[in-house]
Design a protein that fits this description.
5 helices; mainly alpha; 434 Repressor (Amino-terminal Domain); 76 residues; 75% helix
Length: 76
């Protein structure tokens, strides 16, 4: 994946987290990681793995298929 997708995904999960009324700490706890590690996902300062994306799909109620579809559509 290119670096831009991580930035777009970071903004996407931040918006979803805020919409669900969750703090970064709450999401990090559910992922079993530290809050500062989760923060780096939202800021796109580290790359997020597919297993973590799949777990975030469950935690945040996001749809990865829809995200990637819309992202690829913008790239065309």
């Amino acid at each position: 994946m290119d670096d831009m997708i991580y930035k777009v995904f970071g903004a996407y999960i931040k918006e979803a987290r805020i919409t669900k009324g969750l703090s970064q700490q709450e999401v990090a706890d559910r992922l079993g990681i530290k809050q500062n590690a989760y923060s780096r996902f939202e800021k796109a300062t580290c790359k997020i793995t597919l297993p973590v994306m799949l777990e975030l799909e469950h935690i945040l109620g996001i749809n990865l298929s829809e995200f990637f579809y819309n992202y690829n559509k913008k790239e065309d």
